[in-house]
Please model this.
Amino acid sequence: MNVTADSSRVQAYIDEHWGRHLEEVRAFVRQPSISADGTGMGDCARMLVRWIERLGGTGEIVPTKGWPVVYGRIDAGAPHTILLYGMYDVQPVLGETWVVGDPFGGEIMTPPFAPELGPCLINRGVMNQKGPLVNTLLALEALKSVHGTLPMNVIFMVEGEEEMGSQHLPDFVRENRDRLQADAAFFAFLSQDLNGKVLSYLGVKGILFMEFTARGGDWGGPTVRAVHGSNAVWYGNPAWRLTHALASMLSTDQKHILVDGFYDEVEPADAHDEALLATLAPTLDPDERLRGDEVRCFKYDLDGVPLLRKYLYQPTLNIDGIVGGHWQEGTKTIIPHEAKAKVDVRMVRDMDPRTTYERIRAHLDRHGFADIAVEILDAYPWAKTRSDDPPVQAMIETYHQFGHEPEIWPHLAGSAPFYLFTDKKWLNIPVAMGGLGHGGRVHSPNEYATVQGMKDAQQWIAAYFLNLAETLAQ
Amino acid sequence: MNVTADSSRVQAYIDEHWGRHLEEVRAFVRQPSISADGTGMGDCARMLVRWIERLGGTGEIVPTKGWPVVYGRIDAGAPHTILLYGMYDVQPVLGETWVVGDPFGGEIMTPPFAPELGPCLINRGVMNQKGPLVNTLLALEALKSVHGTLPMNVIFMVEGEEEMGSQHLPDFVRENRDRLQADAAFFAFLSQDLNGKVLSYLGVKGILFMEFTARGGDWGGPTVRAVHGSNAVWYGNPAWRLTHALASMLSTDQKHILVDGFYDEVEPADAHDEALLATLAPTLDPDERLRGDEVRCFKYDLDGVPLLRKYLYQPTLNIDGIVGGHWQEGTKTIIPHEAKAKVDVRMVRDMDPRTTYERIRAHLDRHGFADIAVEILDAYPWAKTRSDDPPVQAMIETYHQFGHEPEIWPHLAGSAPFYLFTDKKWLNIPVAMGGLGHGGRVHSPNEYATVQGMKDAQQWIAAYFLNLAETLAQ
Model:
């Protein structure tokens, strides 16, 4: 097989069929699939199965205790197999304001917040991760149209609970281990930043997502309903209780987590990662990061490698949301009977979700907040791959073919359940994530991806599959 | 005029017409009038005007910068005039669960949470204060039907913003001072507790209702939209900021407000009030209070007079509501760009709302929270009357006629803008609030009033007007 020639033909095919391909992308992201409230989940899963069948494979919707996993196979009679991991669920849009009328309208416009990007698809999930997912499907279709077959056998594992913390994916992997055997795993992603630079991440942080609930009880406070606020003079208030409990866990400057033992497993980067940091530091533009997120300053007065070390090797304790009592319009003087906060920890190194939870529980108990309930909604450790693993190697090579020198990061500050692939106790296969294309505002209003980037992404993915087959054959 | 005979005839009239009277009460409370979101406010004001006209008076809906005041007069050619103060707005019901299908259904049922009460009207506003208001109208109608005229001239001032803190009532009083001249003011209320004991309050606490807003800014944090939670490792979070700011203001046991100068004007009860407290203490059943509110214990390990002193002579700092970020179902890992809390202070003695606000502002500034905005939504001082003021005297006498020995409280722990009546700089007339009847769960789901109590209330109010006319004539 002449990979370069094969790749050129597929790229020409995608150029030629781009009008239809773009409409296919729009059709896929227009289908809502919000795991938080269930909107469109079944329809989106069925769309995916039809897609896999169209590619000559067999697809099924496999129930779990939560949202189903879409599982599929395409047998190409090839010596090697790739496991395509993806997610068909997206973040909620409740309460958000978008520049487009409908966050699921598949609208193409030049974003007023970044006109230099040119035409973009502005739609929930277009970057995270339904755009990349449908790009992969279209790349496979192009490969098949041009070559009559695929360079590798393909297994699909597309979950519907990533945005809820992939809670039932471990069960699925455990129960379907035999039919998830592959040589490498891949997660498609739009890896270019605002300037077109390719960012490549060799891993992810872990996460522990919790819900704290303070409620009236033996300590005092209304137990079943709000009572008149004038009683605050002699009754306790669960909203105050939650406030005090949370405040006890983090220093006022938000730099130090005050939970005993929280940092016990936190260690500096190893030599390999430190080398990557030294390469990364000169290319990091902290001001661009701040501008992109519309934030005026970092917590730390640091720059270069020390700032990157904080970002990548420190855990967080973050309030995602808080609610209690009458927060709506108007005045209502009550003592609420309940207040809640959603709190997440991003975990690094050998931090174990269960141990971390137990330290938080112990902190609350020791500080007199034993009544505050902590429910775990999501929990998994970090995961890392090595730059010489075949799927990473093939990825770097494909970037080079497209004229890009990727900037290699030891891992993302964000989380994904990649331990299921990399961990010896689980599938024990190397995983890569990447691809050309640019998008942004993930988990925020006006999530977008550039139209040009989607085309680049499809061409890149097709070439990547050809390269990976070659790399695995060596 | 023979007050006792006159009173008996009116009581007989109400007995005789009770079926219709009860339907009139139900019709009035069924009309929603939620000032927080505007539901039914105009319709309710027009119902009131029609009521005043039906009583032979003239009524008008007087615009303010907020909800209008219903102003009315009935000229009875009498030597004295009573100013009837009331409110036609009620608390919101958003997010509440009621035992009746519709909080505005005017349903009569024996409440499952207090079956010993027998048939009750369960409806938003039935106690606070639309039930007592329509009872007053029905009492006036009965007086007029029986005697052909009323014992006093009547002025109505019924506001639509009490639940929003009576923000524009001071403007109304200032602008309509000339046509608010009266000998006494009265606010109808259901004054009997669960055991039928009459509680009489000679005043109210003041209030300062604020909204705290923490938002990303020069200190850090996202300024215009939520950003991905993984950035919490290097960006600040407004929800943490609000949490720390609030926590700095109150001790963890919720007993001590930590704002400098907050207690400067707080003083012990005077001799007159201490005498009342000594009489009150043996009759206070703290356990009944706790049971009624479904609270398990007080903040303070106190009883009798010391507990009452805390309740009546201490200010509060209370979180009414708090909100920020993604608090809804599911996990969403974000740093919110904003978090808000509604906080109220119940003010005693010479505590001045403006000074108290300034002390809170200074506390925030001094503790490094200058960026947190504090908006005042409501503010007025406490108000007190004396037990020998004519409207109070007539009230006690009327209770005696109905066989009740009222338990006299120096003031309520709750708030009402009675300073507009009592203060020398305002109307400078004595005010009384009271009446027979029992209700509860004000500002909470399942607000109720007993059916028997509504009838007692109407008969009592008619008698009270006769007594007050007599007292003023002496």
Q: What stands out?
A: Chain B has a mean pLDDT of 95. Chain B touches chain A through 97 residues (CB under 8 Å). Chain B has two domains: 3-204+383-473, 206-266+314-380. The longest helix of chain B spans residues 451-473.
